[in-house]
Write a structure and sequence with these properties.
mainly alpha, elongated, Ribosome modulation factor
């Protein structure tokens, strides 16, 4: 089980990577198994969240 602070850190990192114009496919691999999957999902959620904010500002 991944601690909540690590999930939030991964989510924030996803936001920062979107701000840095990195590709969505550049998601880190973190660890294998369920813990790694949870971290990747959090990273992608942060990336998508920030992407949506940027799109709303433009649109």
């Amino acid at each position: 089980m991944v601690p909540a602070y690590e999930l939030e850190r991964a989510r924030q990192t996803g936001r920062w990577m979107r701000d840095a114009h990195k590709d969505r496919n550049s998601v880190p691999l973190y660890a294998m198994g369920e813990d790694g999957l949870a971290l990747r999902r959090a990273w992608l959620a942060g990336y998508d969240e920030r992407d949506e904010q940027i799109r709303r500002k433009r649109g």
